[in-house]
Amino acid sequence: MKCTHSLTATALAILVSSGSLRSQEQSPQIPVGSLSAYPTIVQTGTHPTLTWSVTVPEAVEDIVDIEGPGTLVPKRDVIMDVRILGAGVTASTYYRPGFIFVPTECQINVNGSGYNPIFYGTNNDVNPNEIVYTKKVEEGEEVNFGSRYYYNYSWGPWFSTTNSNGNVVALRNGDTPPTTTPMHYAPTIETFIRPYLGEDGKIKIGPRDVLYLMELTHTNPNHSGFDLQDMALLVTFYDQVAEESTDASGSSESGGDGSSQSEASSGDDGDSSAEKRRKKRKRGRRRR
Questions:
Q1: Based on C-alpha coordinates, what's the Rg of the chain?
Q2: Residue 236: what are its φ and ψ, rounded to 5°?
Q3: What is the domain range of residue 207?
Q4: Residue 265 placed within a domain
Q5: pLDDT averages per 10-residue partition of the chain, 288 residues
Q6: Is 41 inside a domain boundary?
Q7: Count of domains forming the chain
Q8: Fewer beta carbons within 10 Å, N or C terminal of the chain?
């Protein structure tokens, strides 16, 4: 059993199932594309013109550098989403058997602006599908994370991606979690991290994801309680937001037959259809 004084860290009970996060739009896992020929029928001795397009999947290391224990440095301007997956610090109590979850805080520091809280609560407050922080991060800006727990009217030690001494690790798809007991062999851990582990015990997440696991109650990596499950968060990167113009009711700009609307002058007010469309609000969708 893992403990620091009366503190223990148990399995994160409510991490999202494998289907919910995997249902997000993701870049292809293998190269995909299309091939066309023109003309489709040719005479003997002639050759058609071939046109093809291939999309090669990017890995997160193609988009950001991971420096030191876990500092993220984008290689180009990207949109970053952060989700809290679990907060597993618990404490024993004298007034009832078992354990209670202890409030845990997670903070973010973008480009040296100082640490700002993005989550505070117990594991019961975690919603793995909720984006707790989103921001367009510019090329070269450093992104760091830190966390600590609150118990008995005081804060526990602070661990961050800049000075974690192994207490905070940043993992990519295919990495092996550096724990005393391999996670895929430990039943108490497997129950909550199974969605993010392959059969070989390696991390199984999206190609543009970074998974952070934090240990907040122990500093000795050889201790059986050093299991890197006190705070878990997922960082996802997108290239841009693809925008589509809409009117106030949410309908698109094309006509009922699917054709583009005319840009002729609209009358005495001197406003063209094109000008009106520029004034319409826009909605966006992340493209990974």
A1: 25
A2: -125, 140
A3: 7-25+59-240
A4: no
A5: 41 36 44 77 82 73 93 96 90 77 96 97 91 97 97 95 89 82 49 74 91 91 81 89 44 36 38 43 43
A6: no
A7: 1
A8: N
